Request: fold
Amino acid sequence: MKIRKISILLALSFGAFIAFTGCKKDDGAIRSSVTINEIPTISTSVDASGSQAIDLLNIASFSGKFNVALYFAGAAAPSKIDIVVRKNGSNANVKLYKAGVTTFPSSYTVTAADIATLYGVAVALGDTYDFAPDIYVGDRKFEAFPTVGAGSGAGPVAQPLYSEFARFAAICAYDQAIYQGVFNVVSDGFGDFVPGQAVTITKISNTSFSFIDPYVTSPLPIIVNVNPLNNQLSIVKQKIGNAFTWNLAYTNPNMAVAASSASVVAPCSKTITLSITYTVDQGSFGAYTLILKKP
Reply:
């Protein structure tokens, strides 16, 4: 059994220093030497009536829908837009999807075959595809995903109901039938479970399951929640038993998992990865990763 230590976090306060430089007469929000172009604000959003992700277990069924519209109804439209798509968040990997669009709003449907044709390779697990407009104002073009600088849609991202781009990610969609029954431990950073040990996964609902940690007294089911849109997992902080069996002085052990890419199900490989934060009445042990796999 590994030795576990409880961490105590100290909050440190740092002073902030601001350096001021010399000012010029034309300094300010707008400088006399700058020419300003009015760029129409265009929102590009995923349509809920279509597929929300590309399920590699049923790739032919993918029918992603997205809408392109002026954010302000009745505002002046651009000369035209080109709808482009960016792969895997790289502004160096952008392809033209639709050219010369002048109708607003407009709607589009994209398939996995369309994407594969654009990029010349099949969609792969983990890929992301972002659809957004290059905006033309007169003879000037403002790119959605420029290789240098911010894109045409980056400014108003915090505004209500505004969407900079429509993203479709390639995942193996969550299958509740996979996530029940016996799984085997691949690794446990906390050191309770041992590699190869059997762990029973019990279905709670279509988007949740549970398991037991046998290394606590009076064990309670640990409920894991699944976000089927991105396969991320979370555990609302919960008591898992009365004490750890390997040290009864550590009382009321809890587990918590924050939803993030560090905690996911991967249905293609039938795995569960959980970055679990362990706490007891006496303090916190920190976060450790548990990986399970269905044989």
